[in-house]
Design brief:
By secondary structure, the chain is α/β, with parallel strands linked by helices. The strands form 3 sheets. The protein has a 9-stranded mixed sheet with strand order 2-5-1-6-7-8-12-11-10. Strands 3-4 form a two-stranded antiparallel sheet. α1 crosses α9, α5 packs across α6 and α8 crosses α9. It is globular. About 35% of the residues are buried.
């Protein structure tokens, strides 16, 4: 990178493993560009290696297995425009490798199990998202992956999920109360007694009163809207598609919800949906559809996951533009 940025924007992406963080990061890459954005995986701040975790029975989800003091110091240093020597956790060996030099960049993304957990680290974030996979979908996805691809038995899969549950509920899940936005992936309401979990209902929860973030909505801000798009303008196979937008409460706080249930068949028709969405921070008409069509192979591209991830990415870009502009004005003042 040629010059030190006036303002380093720090984004937190939180969620359990297998909840879609890597796909979301690839979508962010499309928006910010590889040279503008540095991603730090918080696994690098494990204070216990794999062998030590096994010996002590402390999982990677447990804060005791992670060095939050170092995480805070290093994220703070990057935000102040200073370079750091970041530790490296080697996923293949389960050991810590020698540290690497990381320079400040325009956008620093910290992603992993705990980006919103530590109050000090949380205070450094300019935007945070929690990817919230419902239990039913998590189990279905894990069964699909571990049984079909890795040859595990159903008993193995359920045991692995249950063994993680106490730490997940204690340390990972509570972070969603502090996130600026949450993407929830839930079972569809369009199919009765659906067990396959291939059709999803995806909700974007936008906490009210977050500085600089205007919630995205359908048709009319503040109204409660349930919308089934016109079948001749949007090709949908069974069970169709249904959208919802409106105010709600989220963990006792006011929030705005944008929800998409079902899936669509043709991404080129998504501009019809886009034209009915407001406050999505696109820079030109059709940009949302264009971004979705860019990677039809990404998981979730044919349902609300991809669409809502891109809307959140556009919100992050708007935050970046606003904070960068403020920093430039301070420099020139």
């Amino acid at each position: 990178m040629s010059s030190k940025p006036n303002r380093v924007v720090v984004i937190g992406v939180a969620g359990d493993s297998g909840c879609g963080k890597s796909t979301f990061l690839r979508r962010l890459n499309d928006l910010f560009g590889e040279e503008f954005m540095t991603v730090i995986c918080l696994d690098d701040y494990h204070s216990l290696d794999r062998k030590q975790r096994k010996q002590t029975g402390i999982t990677a989800l447990d804060p005791r297995a992670n060095n939050f003091d170092l995480m805070y110091e290093q994220v703070k240093a990057l935000k102040e425009g200073k370079s750091i020597m970041k530790p490296i956790y080697n996923h293949e060996t389960g050991l810590l490798d020698p540290p690497e030099l990381v320079q400040p960049n325009k956008v620093i993304v910290i992603e992993g199990l705990h980006p919103i957990y530590d109050e000090r680290v949380r205070g450094l974030l300019d935007f945070s998202i929690y990817l919230d996979l419902s239990d039913e979908v998590k189990i279905a996805w894990k069964i699909q992956r571990d049984m079909a691809e890795r040859g595990h038995t159903l008993a193995d899969v359920m045991q692995a999920i249950e063994s993680r549950r106490p730490d997940f509920e204690a340390y990972i899940d509570p972070q969603k109360a502090h996130a600026d936005v949450v993407i929830q992936i839930l079972p569809t309401n369009l199919i009765a007694n659906d067990t396959e979990r291939k059709v999803l209902r995806v909700r974007l929860v936008q906490r009210s009163g977050v500085e600089g973030i205007e919630p995205a909505y359908l048709f009319d801000e503040g109204s409660t809207i349930s919308w089934i798009p016109c079948g001749t303008k949007l090709t949908c196979s069974y069970p169709g598609i249904k959208l919802f937008s409106g105010p709600d409460s989220w963990l006792g706080q006011p929030a705005s919800i944008l929800e998409i249930d079902g899936q669509f068949d043709r991404l080129d028709e998504m501009v019809y949906i886009e034209s009915h969405l407001s406050s999505i921070d696109t820079k030109y008409y059709g940009e949302l559809t264009e971004l979705l069509r860019k990677h039809p192979d990404y998981p979730g591209s044919n349902n609300g996951t991809g669409l809502l991830q891109i809307i959140v990415g556009l919100k992050m870009r708007a935050t970046f533009d606003r904070l960068t502009k403020q920093a430039e004005q301070l420099v020139t003042a």
